[in-house]
Each structure stands twice: as C-alpha cells, then as structure tokens.
Known about the structure:
Layout: H1 2-13, H2 20-31, H3 36-44, H4 49-84, H5 103-116, E1 121-122, E2 128-130, H6 131-134, E3 154-155, E4 158-163, H7 169-177, E5 182-191, E6 203-213, H8 218-233, E7 239-246, E8 249-258, E9 275-284, H9 286-291, E10 300-307, H10 308-316, H11 323-326, H12 329-332
Parallel strand pairs: 1-5
Antiparallel strand pairs: 2-4, 3-4, 5-6, 6-10, 7-8, 8-9, 9-10
Helix pairs in contact: 1-4, 2-4, 3-4, 5-10
Bound molecules: 3,4-dihydroxyphenylalanine.
Main location: cytoplasm
Protein name: Phenylalanine--tRNA ligase alpha subunit
Subunit structure: Tetramer of two alpha and two beta subunits.
Amino acid sequence: MKEKIESLKSVVSAFEAKTADELEAIRIKYLSKKGIISELFNEFRTVPNEQKREIGQMLNQLRDTAQARLAELKASIEAQKAESEKPDLTRSAEPVALGARHPLSIVRNEIIDIFSRIGFSIAEGPEIEDDWHVFGALNFPPEHPARDMQDTFFIEKNPDILLRTHTSSVQTRTMERVKPPIRILAPGRVYRNEAISYRAHCMFHQVEGLYIDENVSFADLKQALLYFAKEVFGGDTKIRLRPSYFPFTEPSAEMDISCNICGGKGCPFCKQTGWVEIGGCGMVDPNVLDACGIDHERYSGYAFGFGVERITNLKYQVKDLRMFTENDIRFLQQFQ
Ligand code: DAH
C-alpha cells in the first residue's frame, strides 16, 4: 500500500491537462467515488492498526496534492480561455450604417447656403400664428379668400389663431422687430387645408426672402433670383417673371425657371412649355412697410417665396409628394 501511494504521488503531481474535458477525465479517474485514490481509501480499512496513522497521513496528503494540482490546472485552463476570448483590437471595425439627410433638408440647406453667400441671414417665426402676422399686416383685405376656411387651419375656439399658410409671416415678424437694412431668409413649414394627394399636401415647406434698404429696386430682385436659379440648377438656367398679384407686393410676379428636366425643350413635367414655376416675388407693398412701422418714403424692398418641395422635385424628380412624409427608408436612403 505504501509503495502504491508513493508511486502515485509523482503521478499526481505531474498531472497535465490542456482542456476542461481532459481535466474532468483525470478527476474522474483519480478522485471520483470509484477513482484510484478513493479506492485506496477503501483499502485503507484493511490496513493493520499500527500502520493506520502513517498510511492515513500519506493518503490524505496524496488526495490533497491531487486536488491542489487539479485546481492549479483548472485555473490555468480558464486563464487561457479568457485570453483567447479577448476581443481582437486590431480587427477593423464593423461598418456603421449612417443615416442620410432628408431630401427636403438637403435642398433647404442648399438654398440657405446660396443666399447666405450674398448676405442673407436666417430668420424664424412660429408655425402657430395670428391673423395679423399671416394676413393683416401683409395687406390681405378682410374678405380675402386666403383667409377662408378652405385654405387655412384655424383654431376652432379662436379664429384669430391659425397655422401659418405661408412663411411671409416671418417678414412681418422681422420688420416689426428689426430696423432696415434687413436681409433675411426664412425657411419653414406651412399648412393649408388641402386634400392630400400625390401633388398636394396639407403641410409643406417654403423659403421666404426679404430685403429692405434704401433704393432697393426690381433690378436687384431679378439679379438675386437669377443668381439663385443658376446656383441651384446650373449656369444655363434662365428665369422668367410673369406679372401676377399678391396683396403684399406691388408689382408682383410669378417666377419661372427654364425646365431643368428637359432643358427648356418641353416635357410632361413642364407641360411642354419649357418653364416651371417655383415661387412668387415682388416689391414689398408700401402698405406692408407702414403696417410694420417702416418708413416707406425712405425704404423699399423686395420679397420672394419658393416652394421647397417644388425645387426638390425639379432636382430629384420625386413623383409623389407624399413620399416626403412617409419616412420610408428605401426612399430616404437614396439621398446623400
Ligand atoms: N406667400 C406666397 C405664397 O405662399 C408666396 C410669395 C409670393 C412670397 C410673393 C413672397 C412674395 O414673398 O413676394 O403663395
């Protein structure tokens, strides 16, 4: 028995295992209930009494050494495993899918950029407005059809409060607050009570421009609009101003650009005319200057308003206006 224990001692302290499975196999072979060491404990019963003390000690020692060696191996296997599972910091990163700008934001930012290069700064106003800033100060007569329930979303309990139908309200707000010279661009959302279809929406976007100073003329307006059209649609673009009517400008004009889809030859988009309308413009009506506390004898100015969806459609040919608000990622991903 003694020899057995002696010879096992060197075996036990030389245990080797590379994996958890190998380690478990060793544990079962030596230390499980039927294992070699446990069997020795069974045999121990037959040891004569006078030897029990010595052999008992040897056996306990053998078992302790075996257990200690197994614990040692277990620790080293676990350490190795942890090492191999460490993230590889030299691996290249997973590509992160970046979002894209909304086409309307791309175009709005481009318009802002173009006008900021000729000295316009951004102005803002509330989307929930009052009658005065949207209509009254802009020289709309009380019976003007634009105030009609057909076009304007009114707050039911107070018809003086409404959703602005155009960004021209920011003209009013700015002129009331700021002394000329004024040179502002006001991009923003507007609302009209329209049935939603592929070509109309109850919420859309405009960019309003306003320039007020001494001696501002219609020629200044025309030049600014031509510069703008060429910057957005390319150097060959032409503009055309058609006489029109807006309560807040006199004279007023509708602004067309040569159709950039067919280059002016005529196509379905421009209804074969070669021209497409992108907004309205004109010289600020003296009544509007008066209403906002600006001396119309001393100052004059021009104003314009473009539809952002309209310009975006000319650039990207989006066939259905509803796509701008549906947030379909397949649509939005196409714009960078
Ligand atoms: N506010 C007009 C609209 O929504 C557009 C417009 C026309 C704006 C002429 C202007 C302007 O500043 O001078 O239809």
